[in-house]
User: Which sequence fits this backbone?
């Protein structure tokens, strides 16, 4: 993928975000709205957005390449940021995950391809699952290392296949700068992952006789990493992971929880069914992580100018603070529901003014007929 | 022992090779500068090594064996460099080999600037319950070339390897002190890539402390272990029998280091040079062992 970059790649101006209604799509759209030089942000998803957005245009569309291609060309999109990849098999049914991760990625790429396509930059949020998690892995994966074994779980297989089609796209479209960000396990006050659910339990389950190495990246750092790729020229594959690798026992200590080495070292997979009925959901791709752990070498993205806000340890302490505060503030924050009609009115109606307009204009002539 | 180690192939750079190598080198230097900072609040490092567990282990089990059981004697400890990456290469034997821990202890006890020693172990242990949680805490690292490289080049640590690997630990007592084949010389390549010193180490005593009389293929298959040795105490005393060492006298000799940084720009690419250096290291260890064994009056008293 390194041979693809044209040196004159420009920062993003007109951005399309896929998976707008997922956590990452919504967070990224909110973050990009603050960039004045980005003039247009379009978000697509098959579900309604879950976050309040000021100027992002939402188009409800599933991963159909024909429709997305029309949007891309009509809106003269120069940068596509693909945040859709499902990395946790416990959140989405198996078939839907495959449909989204493999077929969906192919469709998005097809929508961006073509000699007359306006797309100059493609950013793909991938996952450290492409490396897998095996006994004979190196302690720190660098971007150039492949895996020795075939992917053993569905999520890993999907991630590898999705990345393969991105690489294929990068080779066939040398005029497009392609960035792949392989994120390690994410933690944070806002995002829900299998790790955050596990760490919220009073006792954190461990596999008997194992103390795996864990590396985390803060949710804000992931958003900033995607942002960094949008505004800078970063062709190639990058690992996104916090500095430092912790032992699981160390993480549990930082969280102030107790370890519960209840999972048997052999046949752990067979136990995941009964555990699910107890409310402990351990997805297949996490089983090996609880035995062997995984570490990523994050220096390449740092060398491209990116700075992490949190180390792995700071990510865990930030999450621990959230866990302590959560029972107190729970239910206080209002949840956002997307109302298409309201959003359309706010964006399209001649009666509305942008929020930074002077207040006296608001009480001007248009407001009168409503009798305010 | 100063035979010419370089073959005719050594140090002949291919045309047009030079600038790219220099660029790669500076790039690697830059990457080293981006290593994660040490967080002072932590008691574990990124490899899972725990100061606390290591200290407890060191002050009890290792201290007892080092001081009273094996009565270890050390020579040439000044050959272990005080700074920079160095790869220690030693002969290896025994069912659950005591040599690694004793070498680490020797450096902690005798060296003017003691440094932690990372010991490379089989990947097998990472997947075996119990070992998997304990070994990283006392400084063991799975023997992956990338791990050794990061330790030597980026962290400039001391790393101990046993190039004999399983050929060493599976060795029976009748073959003691016959240094086995050194694989494909991967350890030399690792040292060259890591711009590190190679320090050959001879250990006398370990091969009698844990003698293996035979290997049971059948039991190995039944238990799923790496190998199933029959020793004076194992399997008769159960898993603890693995630690039933005989009180042989330990002698450790650190030999003169070989500096791989003086072998040209990319010596690891030169397979002939790698093999030559590997042979050289093996020969020096074997020679040192013979010399030490010739002087030894008693296996138990030294």
Assistant:
């Amino acid at each position: 993928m390194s041979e693809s970059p044209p040196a004159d790649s420009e920062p993003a101006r007109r951005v399309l975000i896929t998976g707008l209604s997922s956590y990452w799509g919504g967070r990224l759209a909110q973050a990009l709205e603050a960039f004045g030089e980005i003039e247009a942000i379009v978000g697509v998803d098959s579900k309604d957005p879950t976050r309040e957005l000021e100027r992002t245009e939402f188009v409800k569309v599933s991963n159909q390449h024909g429709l997305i291609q029309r949007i891309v060309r009509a809106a003269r999109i120069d940068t596509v940021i693909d945040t859709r990849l499902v990395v946790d098999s416990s959140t989405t049914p198996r078939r839907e995950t495959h449909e989204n991760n493999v077929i969906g990625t192919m469709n998005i790429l097809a929508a961006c391809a073509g000699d007359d396509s306006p797309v100059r930059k493609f950013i793909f949020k991938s996952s450290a699952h492409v490396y897998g998690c095996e006994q004979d892995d190196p302690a720190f994966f660098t971007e150039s290392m492949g895996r020795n074994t075939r992917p053993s779980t569905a999520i890993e297989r999907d991630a590898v296949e999705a990345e393969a089609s991105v690489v294929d796209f990068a080779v066939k479209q040398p005029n497009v700068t392609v960035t792949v960000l392989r994120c390690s396990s994410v933690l944070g006050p806002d995002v829900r992952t299998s790790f955050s659910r596990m760490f919220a339990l009073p006792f954190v389950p461990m596999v008997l006789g194992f103390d795996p190495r864990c590396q985390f990246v803060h949710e804000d750092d992931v958003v900033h990493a995607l942002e960094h790729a949008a505004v800078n020229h970063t062709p190639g594959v990058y690992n996104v992971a916090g500095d430092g690798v912790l032992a699981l026992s160390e993480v549990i200590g930082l969280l102030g929880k107790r370890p519960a080495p209840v999972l048997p070292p052999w046949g752990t997979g067979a136990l995941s069914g009964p555990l699910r009925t107890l409310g402990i959901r351990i997805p297949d791709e996490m089983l090996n992580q609880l035995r062997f752990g995984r570490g990523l070498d994050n220096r390449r993205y740092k060398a491209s100018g990116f700075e992490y806000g949190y180390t792995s340890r700071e990510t865990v302490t930030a999450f621990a603070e959230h866990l302590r505060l959560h029972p107190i503030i729970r239910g206080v924050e209002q949840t956002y529901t997307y109302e298409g009609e309201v959003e359309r009115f706010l964006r399209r109606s001649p009666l509305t003014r942008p929020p930074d307009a002077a207040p006296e204009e608001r009480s001007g002539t248009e407001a009168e007929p409503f009798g305010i | 022992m100063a035979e010419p180690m370089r073959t005719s192939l050594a140090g002949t750079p291919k045309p047009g090779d030079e600038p790219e190598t220099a660029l790669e080198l500076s790039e690697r230097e830059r990457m080293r500068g981006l290593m994660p900072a040490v967080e002072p609040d932590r008691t574990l490092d990124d490899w899972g090594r725990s100061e606390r567990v290591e200290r407890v282990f060191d002050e009890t089990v290792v201290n007892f064996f080092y001081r009273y059981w094996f009565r270890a004697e050390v020579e040439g400890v000044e050959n272990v460099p005080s700074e920079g990456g160095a790869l220690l290469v030693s002969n290896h034997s025994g069912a659950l080999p005591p040599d690694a821990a004793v070498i680490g202890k020797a450096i902690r006890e005798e060296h003017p600037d003691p440094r932690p020693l990372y010991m490379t172990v089989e990947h097998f242990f990472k997947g075996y319950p119990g070992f998997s949680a304990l070994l990283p805490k006392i400084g063991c690292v799975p023997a992956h070339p990338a791990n050794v490289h990061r330790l030597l080049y980026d962290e400039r640590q001391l790393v101990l390897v046993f190039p004999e690997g399983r050929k060493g630990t599976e060795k029976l007592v009748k073959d003691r002190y016959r240094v086995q084949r050194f694989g494909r010389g991967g350890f030399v390549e690792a040292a060259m890539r890591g711009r590190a010193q190679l320090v050959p180490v001879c250990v006398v005593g370990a091969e009698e402390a844990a003698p293996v009389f035979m290997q049971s293929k059948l039991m190995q298959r039944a238990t799923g272990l790496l190998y199933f040795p029959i020793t004076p105490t194992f399997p008769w005393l159960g898993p603890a029998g693995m630690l039933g060492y005989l009180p042989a006298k330990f002698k450790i000799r650190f030999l003169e280091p070989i500096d791989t940084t003086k072998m040209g720009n990319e010596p690891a690419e030169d397979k002939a040079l790698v093999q030559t250096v590997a042979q050289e290291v093996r020969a020096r260890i074997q020679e040192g062992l013979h010399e030490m064994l010739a002087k030894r009056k008693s296996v138990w008293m030294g």
About this structure: The interface with chain B takes residues 135-140, 142, 145, 207-211, 213, 243-247, 250, 265, 291-292, 295, 297-300, 302-303, 311, 313 of chain A (CB under 8 Å). The radius of gyration of chain A is 22 Å.
